[in-house]
Amino acid sequence: MNFEDLVKKVGSPIVCPKQRHVFRQGDDDDNLYLLQQGLLKAYYIGNDGRETIKSFIQPDNVIGNLGAAYAHEACTFNVVALQDSQLIRIPFKQLIDAVKDSHEVAQKVLAILMSLSIKKERREYEFLSLSAEERYRAFCDTSPQLLESVTQSDIALYLGVTPVGLSRIKKRVHQNNK
Amino acid sequence: MNFEDLVKKVGSPIVCPKQRHVFRQGDDDDNLYLLQQGLLKAYYIGNDGRETIKSFIQPDNVIGNLGAAYAHEACTFNVVALQDSQLIRIPFKQLIDAVKDSHEVAQKVLAILMSLSIKKERREYEFLSLSAEERYRAFCDTSPQLLESVTQSDIALYLGVTPVGLSRIKKRVHQNNK
DNA sequence: TGAGCGCATTAACCCAAGTTAATAATCTGG
DNA sequence: CCAGATTATTAACTTGGGTTAATGCGCTCA
Hints:
Two copies of one chain form a homodimer.
Chain A: H1 3-10, E1 12-16, E2 21-23, E3 31-45, E4 51-57, E5 62-63, H2 66-71, E6 78-91, H3 92-101, H4 103-129, H5 132-142, H6 144-149, H7 152-159, H8 163-177
Antiparallel strand pairs in A: 1-6, 2-6, 3-4, 3-5, 3-6
Helix pairs in contact in A: 3-4, 5-8, 7-8
The structure holds a DNA duplex.
């Protein structure tokens, strides 16, 4: 069976209007979600109650709590729709089982995991090696579409600064570029 | 074929004395390395020439530049031995090919990727949501063995602060704990 | 159409961590 | 066993970003 067919067979289409959560921290959700349309954000609420943003998810990407799905732990983060979204829910276990039976599915699952890994690797690098200002510049370069569709406050929490901090960084950057 | 046998068949044992590099930033190395004995560090040299540390690798763990291995790109980081080490080099392509032929290998490769993903997820969370002092506390809790075997300077670069900064954090933490 | 809400900007003040440099402690090789 | 190198600590000064709070600017919807 190929991956497309598998998704058709074991996936359920989900409609997720703006503001609604796909899943929440603490949930027991072992699904993977394939975003077809819309925009999602994955975020943490820390012990101190503060929000930080793990990632924005754009169409044709996959989101899910791997730890939760693979090792049956509780989700460590939340996912909410920033725009009306359509996704397909795929029970992770079904994917794993299909890996056994189909090389094509195995390759595709591998590709998904690799792409997630590579993204996280880049993000790790940015936090380790770049200043907040450099992270902002990198974000502008690589994700100009998100600059349009996401509030500045959310961009700040994604970059690891406060909204006030990001406002200052922007001012600095745009001054120096003129 | 099971995973053990595959490793025996396609893996080459490597001896890596202290200070020697396993691979370097810019190399074209599509192998995975399984550490059997010793201690490695994976680190970046940024554009400004500064070092930052991506991870420490302890026995029974795997290291390799996934992006380089999977997509045939140049390595984005360096790996060097902090202690005399023994590892097994496994061409990534052989693993991928074996995924097609063996469910057991597929499961194992999946498990390796999941464990890498989960580690990166935790690290991402720590950079996003914790202060440098909290990251240091977390490090002491989760990796007390590394506190012994790694210089303070390397711990600092791993935590995303300067050695001077870590010295101050330590002082603060141990004062308050007394 | 206007009251109220959320978002972005700005200012004032504070603090954690960076930078540089000096000193002390430790390790290492000849 | 010593000399030089590496590592850790401490101090003095600087700076980026946090915090709080005030202000202004659109939204929305009643």
